[in-house]
Amino acid sequence: MYCTYAKNDEFNLLINNIMNYKNFTDNLEKCVRILTRDFVNKKMHAIKFMSKIVYEYGLKQFLTSKNIFPLKEGTTHFKFKIKDFVFEMDVFLYPLENLKKPFKKYIQVTSLTFGLEGRY
Description:
Helix 1 runs antiparallel to helix 2 (24-39). This protein has three helices and four strands; from the N terminus they run H-H-E-H-E-E-E. 32% of the residues lie in helices and 27% in strands. It has helices spanning 9-19, 24-39, 46-56, and strands at 43-45, 74-82, 85-93, 106-116. The radius of gyration is 15 Å and the shape is elongated. The chain is α+β, with helices and mostly antiparallel strands and 120 residues long.
């Protein structure tokens, strides 16, 4: 059964394949490549980051971390689980640069780790 998890069609297909255990290893590898390409070591607005996580990649439903919102300055640890695939990312929220623009906060994903549950 094909479900809509994410707006990003490529990532949505990968999630569906992972959920249905189709070409599991290949899909995990592609998933990690996309997440690394689009998130790791890229400074972006915090609102853009949350939009990508929640809407574009549809990952909020797989989030297992608790009490991480609202983001606080410093590093926040996100943990996601899709079937047996677990990945974690550390997100650094920079201090506010301009007090007149409180929504102009920047984040950077500083690390991304991944593996199969129970094996990493």
